[in-house]
Every structure is written in C-alpha cells, then in structure tokens.
Amino acid sequence: MNIVNVRIDERLVHGIVATFWIPKLKIDRVICIDNKSAEEPMIKSALRMATPSHVYLSIIPLEKAINNLKEGKYGNERLMIIVKTPDILLNLRDAGIVFNEIVMGNLGIIDKSEERKSITNYLSVSKNDIKNFDALHKLGVSLTIQLIPDDVPSDFYELMKVKI
After folding, report:
1. What is the pTM of this model?
2. How far apart are CA 125 and CA 63, in angstroms?
3. What keywords is this UniProt entry annotated with (predicted)?
4. Are 24 and 119 spatial neighbours (Cβ–Cβ below 8 Å)?
C-alpha cells in the first residue's frame, strides 16, 4: 500500500486537488471515502469530471475502503485518500490503515452551523471534530494546513487549540 497523501476536504475532488496536488504528488488513484457520495450517481459523475483523466478514481463507502486497503487491492499505486470528516480517518486508523499526516483542505464550509468554531477562512470545527482530531493527534498523526503543495505547511492542531 502506497498512501502518498491523506486529505480532509468537504468538496473531495476540486480544482486545487486536480491541478496542484495530484500532479505534484504523481497520484495514480484518488480514493474518496464517503458513504453518501458512493450512493449518489450525480456526485460520482461530478467527481469523475473533476479528476484528471489519467488518474483512477474510487468513490467508496468506509467499509469497502477498509477492505480494499487491507487486501492490497491497489498494489503499488500512488494513493491519495480524501474524506469529508476526521471521524472517517480515525476509523481507518482503528482498522489498521497507517498514515502519519493529514493535510487539511476545506472543513465546515458546507455546514455553517453556529456550533462550529472558525480556525481559518476555510476550516471550522465542531465538538465532534475536535474530539476526533485529539484522538488522531494522540496516535501521532500530524495535522497540516497547506493550501497548495508549494505553500509552507503549518500545524493545524496547534492553531485549533489556540483558537478554541
């Protein structure tokens, strides 16, 4: 298994992912792990259109992702895993899928509930998100803010702790 990048992004695949991250990291396959998106033909179609044509795209529910990754279904492909929320990544880690860094894309831009605490212009967290980020941090997973690959990364977890 060759997980090159793990990303939280409510929009899953979009312009920044397709034009900056995928080429820079030489990604062979993007795996969008989201139960709802995996069942929606229109969403799947839009994500396919946003993904570069030379890159494989899998839009699958969590359990299928865990099984596929554990079974080594993707061989030596360079994988980018994208999820909408941190709880999915905690579930992956609990299932034995190892990754050491999460790059933060967009979180909380779709759900604008008053309960969310703003961390940056494109990142806000709920109480449940904070709990999941704390658990990931305790597992040694670094949480990075980096809009595009050429930006200098900064520590999302420390910024979150300051802002909340």
Report:
1. 0.96
2. 25
3. Cytoplasm, Kinase, Phosphotransferase system, Sugar transport, Transferase, Transport
4. no
Cα 82 from Cα 84, distance rounded (Å): 7
pLDDT tens digits along 118-155: 999 999 999 999 999 999 999 999 999 999 999 999 99
- C-alpha 33/C-alpha 82 separation (Å) is 6
Count the neighbouring beta carbons within 10 Å of the beta carbon of residue 152: 6
Distance between CA atoms of residues 134 and 17, nearest Å? 26
Across-strand partners of 142?
Answer: 101
Per DSSP, helices labelled H in the chain are 15-16, 22-25, 35-38, 41-50, 62-70, 86-94, 127-138, 156-163
Burial of 96 (0-12, 13-18, 19+ CB in 10 A): exposed
Give the number of C-alpha atoms closer than 13 A to the C-alpha of residue 158, restricted to the C-beta side. Answer: 6
Dist. CA 147–CA 162, nearest whole Å: 20
